Amino acid sequence: MTRWVPPRDVLLAWNRDHLWNPFTPMKNYLEEDPVIIERGEGVKLFDVDGRAYWDGYSSLWLNVHGHNVPELNAAVTEQLGKIAHATLLGSANVPAILLAKRLADLAPPGLRKVFFSDSGAEAVEIAVKMAFQYWQNIGRPEKRRFITMTGAYHGDTIGAVSVGAIELFHARFGPLLFPTVRIPYPHAYRHPSGDPEAAARDSLAALEAILRDQADEIAALIVEPVMQGAAGMIRMPDGFMAALADRLRAYDVLLIADEVATGLGRTGAMFAVEHDGVVPDFLTLGKGLTGGYLPVAATLTTDRIYEAFWGEEIEGKTFYHGHSYTGNPLGCAVALANLELMEQRKLLEHVRRLSARAEARLSAFRELPYVGDVRQAGLMIGIEIVRDRATKAPFPREVRIGRKIVARARELGLLTRPLGDVIVFMPPLATPEAALEAMMDILYRAIAEVTEKEAGR
Ligand code: PMP
To answer: Binding residues for substrate, per the UniProt record (predicted)?
Structure first.
């Protein structure tokens, strides 16, 4: 039976009356004639009026093969015919076991243990709690602090916010958070020297100073490898991850690689840590794990960590964490189908081809008079808009240049979301080449038109 859907004006009224959207200034949103998506097909989204838009942000950085994919639909339906949910607390289910095995086979060597969860934030919380408890379990409870990076975003629950560092989202919750030690994420464009190597050197020097004095108290460092996402698509200098991992290993501090955004092909490698040959102690996944279908996330770790939790109940070594829907069979079944499809369709090769094509197109964006910086890691792209390229000064805040560009792109038929003055471009990994070109045409036009207009005011 198909549910009756009221007309658009009624939906909008109900959105206004009852639906509080996440990360959304509700006043602006409701003034700006919101898009209400009804369905998707391939890399296109259709609103309730039947208008089509390119999905230029992978429906918040997670879509892989496009929307309404027959193979993924079938995986959900097939599992529905068996069971929708069975708990992992004290029992198991078939798709969860198969997915754990598959992830262990795919992951960098040694990451053999998989703990499931429902969101990226939770996958991070699990890594943080495991790292914290690991040192207690092996008799070193004084190692209990975390090193975090400026600009970090690891999710919006209180633990994930504690290890995050985005003023706008996190500052007001300060009194609720546990304190961390922070080092700068190497951000070449905003570093006084503008030089990636100098930015990396400063960051590593800050790390070394902390490790030299305090390593005995530090449990772990958490980092978004290769590309920091929500901070505005900040690309770390090549080799930085390897140097970071090397220093942490020297001081026996654990490494948590948060690959919720970068993992599973997004940067052109299966995992971003592979670019530098790094094997972290924890690797978090979310977003693209189910191809963008259902909320399943995962925290991968090593035997070294797992074995520290191995003990009789009375020894107090158990990891007491889990949610009602942990390891949901529908989600795990579609995640398995997603990973199989990635392999069958040689998606990583496609991503690399598409990234090269995007890179070639981006050189024209760099020439635009109000584009300050273009940052790319595979199909994770950020275009930073500035008022003055020489001084790197932004447009005045009240201009809200990012939002205006995204609004124009929407009029032209492309959906994305800005991160302040950085325009995000993250198409689904399986985007056909012609669709990528069409999306980038719109993006270019929207940036050129809006910046010219606003600068001329
Ligand atoms: N870590 C990173 C690096 C992310 O980019 C995000 C989401 N943008 C998260 C964690 C949180 O994931 P979720 O929104 O699924 O909780």
So the answer is: 153, 287, 322, 417
